[in-house]
Structure formats: C-alpha cells, structure tokens
Specification:
The protein has 102 residues and is of the alpha+beta class. The protein has one domain. It is globular and about 40 Å long. The termini are far apart. This is 11729_t:CDS:1.
C-alpha cells in the first residue's frame, strides 16, 4: 500500500486548478483580446466580421431606434468619438463631468 502525501494548501495561489470556486473579476470589458479602455464603448457595441473589429453606435435617435452607424476600429476610436460629438452632441468632457457628479 502506498501512502499518498498531500502538499500543504497555498492560499496565495491564483491557478484555477487550486481554486476552482473563485472567479476572476474583470475590470474592463474584453474586446478582441485586448482591454477596452475608451469612454466611447459606453455608446458603441463592439462587433467582429471576417476578422475585422467594428463599433456600432447604440445611441437612441428616436424611441426604439438606435443610430447603428458602424465604424471599423483598429487601434484608434477617434472616428467614434467624433461621431458622438458631431452627431449626438456627446463629448468626453461631458462624460467625465457626469462621472465626477456621481
């Protein structure tokens, strides 16, 4: 008969095997393998088609109708932020003021 020796439990481990009941908390949405950091993603829905990353505007223009203007998104979201400012009157400065007010 072989005695099985158990190793001491390490509470500092982050592996899934040692802590299967703990879920990792995502601080940022993941889109295409990278963390989404831009403020515009509050108003745009990310999408993929044939390996190309898109952003689709979700701002309501009338009741039950969204803008749905679509932009290709590479490493920059400037077209999306310009769309929000020029078409919907939403700017990054307004967003930051809203966050500070809450």
């Amino acid at each position: 008969m072989v005695n099985k020796v158990e190793e001491p439990h390490n509470d500092n481990s982050d592996t899934e095997l040692e802590q299967p009941n703990h879920k990792k908390v995502k601080l940022n949405k993941i889109c295409g393998g990278s963390k989404v950091r831009s403020w515009i993603w509050k108003y745009f829905e990310p999408g993929f088609k044939e390996g190309v990353r898109y952003a689709v505007c979700q701002v309501a223009i009338i009741v039950r109708k969204k803008c749905e203007k679509t932009y290709k998104v590479g490493t920059s979201t400037s077209n999306c932020s310009e769309h929000l400012a020029n078409i919907h009157g939403i700017t990054k400065e307004q967003e930051e003021a809203n966050v500070d007010a809450n």
